[in-house]
Amino acid sequence: MIDIRTIRDNPDLVKASQRARGAAESDVDDVLAADEARRASLQEFEDLRAEQKALSRTVGKASPEDRPAILAKAKEMAEQVKALEAKSDAAAATFQEAMLKLQNLIIDGVPAGGEDDYVVLREIGTIRNFADEGVQIKDHLDVAEGIDALDMERGAKVSGARFYYLTGIGARLELALLTMAADQAADNGFKLMNTPTLVKPEIMGGTGFLGAHSDEIYYLPADDLYLTGTSEVALAGYHENEILDLSAGPKRYAGWSTCYRREAGSHGKDTRGIIRVHQFNKVEMFSFCDADDAEAEHARFLGWEEEMLAKVELPYRVIDTAAGDLGASAARKFDCEAWLPSQNRYMEVTSTSNCTTFQARRLKIRQRGEDGMEAVATINGTLATTRWLVAMFENHQQADGSLYVPQALRPYLGGREAIEPVAARGARA
């Protein structure tokens, strides 16, 4: 959540952020009204409780004749104090509910608007001219099936639409990619974590995922637990209600986990192959850092993501995501989109978000500052995920049906430089 002092001191700034996101400016007014009611109610309760305590102290000194009246008055006042405490608690709950509706304050320079209002920061790499090479472009599913890497039909048979099996070399490719990502994370000071994929409501809500897009999340009512769509959730909750020592720099973690998303509202979108699926694997970077270092840490995360994209030799672009397309917790988000030859477009493969102190305030994660306790900042970013295989299959397909293996990935695949199609393997056998 946003610091209430910021909202009180500069409500127009917060309203401008809401406006840029396409969110309700009236939510800011609701917070201010709830804050005023909460403080007034608390003051009323504390004033009467102080009077009650003062009156109670007079009982022992009162004369026998006055004592019954004082005791009666004290009893009456105790009931009033109890009622005012309940009123104060209700006002505090209303204030908390209003605060949780507010989305994070965007950072200066974030483009206003919605999904299509992003700003392209740079384009990296050369897009292959398949026609000049004499290569008939296949989409990722055809390429994957040609090398026996993916089985969509049996995935649907066993689990339904948008499920799949990575088979043989497909499973090996994903494992190689994620292992390379884990190695890079470790080389840059991240502690590798295999995270829980089921979390409590307070952790899911604390990261800001139970807002407008809560219908994307799988929920298990019998256990009151949520399946995570990213290990960001479990990593953010790792230090819930703790005081961190960041004197030696950010605390960085890399979460390796399976992720689950309902893909609600995506009916008819990317139904072929594994672009948009219900289950996938991912290595996610996460950092707890000083709020003053958050933007620099965010830039470092983007640099590490681009380093991974260079290793798998994909042409890509970096976009500055518009405010209306940010998640509730993100103050700024950069997406890296790889080129998808079969669709002649870019496709998001990774993103990194600066959540400033928004998540940490909700999860009560602090550090000791010069002026007392202060919230830390959180940064997240994807280092590799199953979806990368889509771009790799399409960009690295060869005329003979084989798949080129990027040089950096070869040590993780026994040194192989290419993966031959099934037909070629069968003919050689």
Concise synopsis of the structure shown:
The chain is an alpha+beta fold and 429 residues long. The protein has 14 helices and 18 strands. A hairpin with a 4-residue loop joins strand 12 (332-340) and strand 13 (345-354).
Strand order of the largest sheet: 1-11-12-13-16-10-9-4
Class from helix and strand fractions:
alpha+beta
Report the portion of residues in β strands: 15-25%
Q: Which regions have little confidence, pLDDT < 50, spanning 5+ residues? A: none
Nearest-angstrom radius of gyration? 28 Å
Please, what is the average pLDDT?
A: 93
Number of strands: 18
Net shape: elongated
- Distance from first to last alpha carbon: 62 Å
Number of helices: 14
The helix content, as a percent range, equals 40-55%
Major beta sheet, specifics?
Answer: 8 strands, mixed
Question: What topology emerges from the helices and strands here?
Answer:
Layout: H1 4-9, H2 11-21, H3 26-57, H4 67-101, E1 119-124, H5 130-133, H6 140-146, E2 150-151, H7 152-159, E3 165-166, H8 169-187, E4 191-194, E5 198-199, H9 201-206, E6 219-220, E7 225-227, H10 232-237, E8 243-244, E9 251-260, E10 279-289, H11 294-311, E11 316-320, E12 332-340, E13 345-354, H12 358-363, E14 366-369, E15 372-375, E16 377-385, H13 388-395, E17 403-404, E18 418-419, H14 422-428
Parallel strand pairs: 4-9, 8-14
Antiparallel strand pairs: 1-11, 2-3, 5-7, 6-7, 9-10, 10-16, 11-12, 12-13, 13-16, 14-15, 17-18
Helix pairs in contact: 2-3, 3-4, 6-13
